[in-house]
Design brief:
With 375 residues, the chain is of the alpha/beta class. It folds into two domains: 213 residues, Rossmann fold, CATH 3.40.50; 85 residues, no CATH class. It is 33% helix and 12% strand. Strands 2-3-1-9-6-7-8 form a seven-stranded mixed beta sheet, covered by helices on one side. The protein has a two-stranded antiparallel sheet with strand order 4-5. Strand 7, helix 11 and strand 8 form a beta-alpha-beta unit. The longest helix has 16 residues. It is globular and about 75 Å long. The relative contact order is 0.14. Its EC number is 2.1.1.37.
Length: 375
């Protein structure tokens, strides 16, 4: 509890009074809904959700924060406390496309009158990639893929699976099926021949995540998988951001933290929302190259690039707010390196070196709100 208070003071407290509530246990896990469809999703009948945010927490600036849903105990409760006690919206992207991506989003956007990107993407493996059906065995019952990660299965593993199947009966023994299916689910392996599995290609991941074809082309293959594993699922984010289109017919000024390869910006572009200016904060050189290349080919607005959230000072934020008349949207998802379940070695929650960068999101957002309150 004291640590939360110290961090809040260190990173600027709350912009406009009303300290976040510290009632309840810091370690209480935040329950994840089942199905994980957030406040609403197209095609899902559910009780309508209404939420009324305190006046000081409404936009502009609108803000949108994302991270992995299945974080260690207490993480989402802490994030929510820092972000004005706003309830997270947990969504698994499998309800919008053919691959899972369980994420939590905290934002102050309206939740009424959302609209999905059209055409809506396919929701099953065979709809997305019909050519795989030829070799797909009847005992592989998957209809969707699991979450796309930053690394892929090794050639040694796919060879081992091929040998196990080649030396087995047809259909294989249950024990062989169980082994193969476990590896296929874990690595999102697809069937490309008789007894032959392989990881998804980077352009297939781009498609599943809602990016244009060849968005990450030009990077080394390892860097492509890493950048795609860390980005937004565009259709999901665009559904949430779609409310901005009517609100800002002349376009938006965006402060983009942890930009990555530009998932948020691609979502805005696909929605037809003009970005008058984007201040992009991204430390990865490969990600910056991809984002800059996409921007130069598709956008006409102003792009300002900053290397690191740590170097974005409050004075610099004040100057940007003055220059652009404020930001309409502050968007970003801080690194999940110390939060994700598959990270066995540095599972330190928000105290981990990378995931502690969340507190800079909070600091920067507060600085924007304070600067905009003065203009």
């Amino acid at each position: 509890m004291e640590e939360s208070k110290k961090k809040r003071n260190r990173y600027g407290g709350r912009a406009q009074g009303n300290q976040p509530s510290l009632d309840g246990s810091h370690d209480e896990p935040m329950p994840l809904p089942n199905p994980m469809i957030g406040f609403n999703l197209p095609g899902y009948l559910q009780p309508s959700v209404t939420r009324i945010l305190p006046k000081q927490d409404t936009g502009p600036p609108f803000f949108y924060y994302e991270n992995v849903a299945q974080a260690p105990k207490g993480v989402w409760a802490t994030i929510s406390r820092f972000l004005y006690d706003i309830q997270p919206e947990f969504v698994d992207s499998k309800h919008l496309c053919a691959t899972a991506r369980k994420r939590g989003y905290i934002h102050n956007l309206p939740i009424e009158n959302r609209s999905p990107l059209l055409p809506m993407p396919p929701k099953t493996i065979f709809e997305a990639f019909p050519h795989y059906k030829k070799w797909w065995p009847s005992w592989d019952l998957r209809t969707q893929l699991n979450c796309l990660r930053t690394n892929i299965a090794s050639a040694k593993l796919t060879e081992r699976i091929g040998r196990a199947l080649a030396s087995s009966d047809s259909p294989p023994a249950r024990s062989v099926q169980k082994y193969v299916m476990n590896e296929c689910r874990k690595g999102n392996l697809v069937w490309i021949g008789k007894n032959k599995v392989a990881p998804l290609e980077p352009e297939e991941m781009e498609y599943l995540l809602g990016f244009p074809k060849d968005h990450t082309r030009g990077l080394g293959i390892t860097e492509r998988y890493k950048s795609l594993g860390n980005t937004f699922q565009v259709d999901t984010v665009a559904y949430h951001l779609s409310v901005l289109k009517v609100m800002f017919p002349n376009g938006v000024n965006v402060l983009s933290l942890f930009t990555g390869i530009g998932g948020g910006e691609v979502a805005l572009h696909r929605l037809g929302i003009h970005m008058k200016a984007v201040v992009s904060v991204e430390i990865g050189k490969a990600n910056k190259r991809i984002f800059r290349g996409w921007w130069d080919q598709t956008q006409t607005g102003t792009l300002i690039e900053i290397d690191d959230v740590k170097s974005l000072t409050d004075d610099t934020i004040v100057s940007f707010v003055s220059r652009f008349g404020g930001f309409d949207l502050v968007i970003g998802g801080s690194p999940c390196n110390n939060l994700a379940g598959c990270n066995r070695y540095n599972h330190d929650g928000l105290e981990g070196e990378q995931s502690a960068l969340f507190y800079h999101y909070f600091r920067i957002l507060n600085a924007v709100k304070s600067a905009m309150a003065r203009i």
